[in-house]
Automatic annotation (TrEMBL):
Residues 1-21 are annotated as: Disordered. The keyword Ubl conjugation does not apply. This is Pyridoxamine 5'-phosphate oxidase family protein. It comes from Prauserella cavernicola. SUPFAM superfamilies: FMN-binding split barrel.
Length: 168
């Protein structure tokens, strides 16, 4: 996967006068270190579906996994556009991040092995996956792996408040 550096846009309309744009390396580090993400997809009837999950930022994309019969997978099969959100649930600090893009099923087993190693490094032994038949395997369970290469990432800094958008 080609890693692209985004164009940075600071929106002063929604920012404190003393705020500045969040640098992309800082946002990328936050995406890498985040313990939890919220995935928002669209149900076939148009209603939203949001669920928490773990994932890894790897080689310019946010990866997550799901069972074939889970609602998020069924939604993504019908409409691959989604948003992944992470941040801090307070008003006084940190930066909330929203990653928008298309979720593409990852089937390359070399990439899957690297992503599995990233899960193990980040989350420990409870999240050790093997790779077989283009999917993650954990005990008797099989998980499909998706990659979201961002089209846009929004950063909402708090303290001072500042809004940055990265376009890919």
């Amino acid at each position: 996967m080609t890693v692209t550096e985004p164009a940075t846009h600071f929106d002063s309309r929604y920012s404190d006068p003393e705020a500045t744009a969040t640098e992309w390396p800082s946002a990328r580090r936050a995406l890498t270190e985040a313990p939890l993400y919220w995935l928002s997809t669209v149900r076939p009837g148009g209603r939203p579906h949001t669920t928490p999950l773990i994932g890894v930022w790897h080689e310019g994309a946010l990866y997550f996994c799901t069972g074939a019969g889970e609602r998020k997978n069924l939604n993504l099969e019908a409409n691959p556009w989604c948003a992944l959100i992470t941040g801090r649930n307070d008003l006084a600090g940190g930066t909330d991040l929203v990653v928008e893009g298309r979720a593409e099923r990852e089937r390359d087993e070399d990439v899957l092995r690297r992503v599995a190693a990233a899960y193990l490094s980040k989350y420990g032994e409870d999240w050790r996956f093997s790779v077989r038949d283009n999917a993650f395997v954990h005990g008797p369970g099989v998980a499909l792996v998706y990659a979201v290469s961002p089209t846009t990432v929004f950063g909402f800094a708090k303290g001072p408040y500042g809004q940055t958008r990265w376009s890919f």
